[in-house]
Each structure stands twice: as structure tokens, then as C-alpha cells.
């Protein structure tokens, strides 16, 4: 079966289902590997380590970047979108990083790490401790 009509149902740790286009879902190397030998039109993939709120954000990221690549979006527009996308609470940011690592979405993991690095750049140890509540 071709990729075009395929849907991947991603089920979050809290059992919420997300229907995602095959091309978007396979931006995750983990999911691409799981689906490699599956030919069904719709496939369900449990994502046990990621809650629904964070999975929705990860899917939003993948959808945007899948479409941006497809329509040859400008690098400037993508960078602006990425910056806005990462404007989330620290807890959400770290959960996105964990999800990106688990799902093996290298570009999202890299973006998250760059965001954290920017947050701590030129800060004292005390300021970093305060920022991360440690």
C-alpha cells in the first residue's frame, strides 16, 4: 500500500488517540521502524512514555515540518515557527525533549536542546538553579 492514504493511530500513555498521516508519523525513526513491515491502511502504535498534551505538541511539530519540507518553506519562516513553538513552560519543554528522545525525532531533540542552552547561556549557577527549581 502507498504512503498516501495510510493513517497511523498514535495512542498516548493516557490512552488518547491521535490519527496522523503516515509521512508525518514516520518523522519519528522509532515509528518508521515499527511500521517498516506493516501494510495495513491504519495501524495503531502505542506511545507509552508520552502523555496526550506532549504527544499533541510533538505531532504539531512533525506536521509543520513535514508540510514545510513538502512546500519548500523558507528557512527564515521555519526558524520563526520553531522559536514560537518552543515558547512553553519548562515542564512541557523537558517533556517534549523526553518524547523526542524516546520517539527518535532528532531535529526536535536538537531544537529542544538548543532552547535549553539558550535559557542558561550567560546565567550564574544560582540563576540556573532557580530557573530549573533545583
UniProtKB/TrEMBL annotation:
Record bears the keyword Metal-binding: no
Source organism superkingdom: Eukaryota
GO BP term, example: ubiquitin-dependent protein catabolic process
Domain SKP1 component dimerisation, residue spans: 107-134
Chain ranges of the SKP1 component POZ domain: 7-65
Pfam assignment, any one: Skp1_POZ
Assigned keywords, A-Z: Ubl conjugation pathway
Family to which the UniProt record says this protein belongs: Belongs to the SKP1 family.
Protein name as it appears in the record: SKP1-like protein
Species: Rhodosorus marinus
Amino acid at each position: 500500500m502507498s504512503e498516501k492514504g495510510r493513517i497511523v493511530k498514535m495512542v498516548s500513555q493516557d490512552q488518547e488517540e491521535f490519527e496522523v498521516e503516515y509521512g508525518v508519523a514516520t518523522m519519528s525513526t522509532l515509528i518508521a521502524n515499527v511500521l517498516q513491515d506493516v501494510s495495513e491502511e491504519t495501524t495503531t502504535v502505542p506511545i507509552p512514555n508520552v502523555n496526550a498534551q506532549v504527544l499533541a505538541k510533538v505531532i504539531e511539530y512533525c506536521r509543520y515540518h513535514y508540510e514545510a519540507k513538502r512546500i519548500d518553506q523558507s528557512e527564515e519562516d521555519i526558524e520563526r515557527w520553531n522559536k514560537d513553538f518552543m515558547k512553553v513552560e519548562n515542564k512541557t519543554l523537558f517533556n517534549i525533549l523526553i518524547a523526542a528522545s524516546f520517539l527518535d525525532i532528532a531535529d526536535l531533540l536538537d531544537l529542544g536542546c538548543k532552547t535549553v542552552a539558550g535559557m542558561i547561556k550567560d546565567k550564574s549557577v544560582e540563576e540556573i538553579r532557580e530557573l530549573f527549581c533545583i
